[in-house]
Amino acid sequence: MMGDPNLKEYLQEIREYPILKAKEEKRLFKLCIDGDEKARENLITSNLRLVVSIAKKYVNCGLPFIDLIEEGNVGLIYAVERFDPEKGCRFSTYATCWIKHSICRAITEKNQLVRIPAYMKKIISQCKEQIAIMIRESGKTPTVQEVVERTNLQKTKKSIIHEALMTTQALESMQSLYTLNANQDWIEDRKTNNTLQQIFDKSEFEWIMGIIDGLDSKRAQVIRLRYGLDGKSPMTLKEIASLLKLTKERIRQIEKETLSMLRQIIKRRKASDCAL
């Protein structure tokens, strides 16, 4: 990963850019909104290390490390251009969503060019089906060994399963998400502005993304459309209702129930962790 001299030079260079304090970050964003290019550049360079730290998590997913960094930088730039400092959250929280989204989209496009053997597709399908069931039963993401035992697959296929699940987890981690504040008991029919990380805390955020496929098909579809999980723009309740041929109120209800369900899974997981 570190054999490329250009990569070494780049990593050395970005260490020189200081991490911004909240007050300075907010000041620079105000200047950036007014068209100050220097402020925009400072906001980007001060977060380049954030991109690297995120990119490291995807080194086994099909793209060279330097390519992951480049894709993450695209997401960072996009985040700088869209961020609203008046919403109350730190830029690093917001940018993380766009950085991961950009990286995962690139991984998805790369993997679409690679032919997956039929037997691998069958293994992946088996694994995903059982993982969904196991998550609903226990509220926890199972280990590779638990999946092997549950699916009765040969132990010799364990490494294949592990690799398949690693890739699947990365591709499912599409993270340019929007949603309502967790304390609201109603959902407006508009494209929401806060990130999912304002509902679930940082330690829960990536984990909860892995269980979206464990939902029944209707709930999963509503969540994916509402929060842009497939890399598309989030849709309003009215738009989703029209697409799925349901009432807007029914879509609102499905969204609210599903968010509540996800919180309950988190709660059970925490209780389980405390019992260990």
Question: Can you summarize this structure?
Answer:
Belongs to the sigma-70 factor family. By secondary structure, the protein is mainly α.
Reported by name, the CATH topology of the largest domain is Four Helix Bundle (Hemerythrin (Met), subunit A)
Give me the secondary-structure category.
Answer: mainly alpha
Q: Radius of gyration from the CA trace? A: 20 Å
Count of separate DSSP helical elements = 13
Helicity level: 55-70%
As a percent range, the share of strand residues is under 5%
Written as H for each helix and E for each strand, in order along the chain, the element string is HHHHHHHHHHHHH
- From the coordinates shown, what is the CATH architecture of the largest domain? Up-down Bundle
Poorly predicted runs are 167-199
How many β-strands, per DSSP?
0
Terminal Cα separation, in Å?
36 Å
The average pLDDT value, as a whole number, equals 73
Q: Give the C-level CATH assignment of the largest domain.
A: Mainly Alpha
What is the 3D shape? globular
Secondary structure topology:
Elements: H1 5-14, H2 22-33, H3 37-45, H4 48-55, H5 65-82, H6 91-112, H7 118-138, H8 144-151, H9 158-172, H10 202-209, H11 217-227, H12 237-244, H13 248-275
Helix pairs in contact: 2-3, 4-5, 4-6, 5-6, 7-8, 7-9, 11-13, 12-13
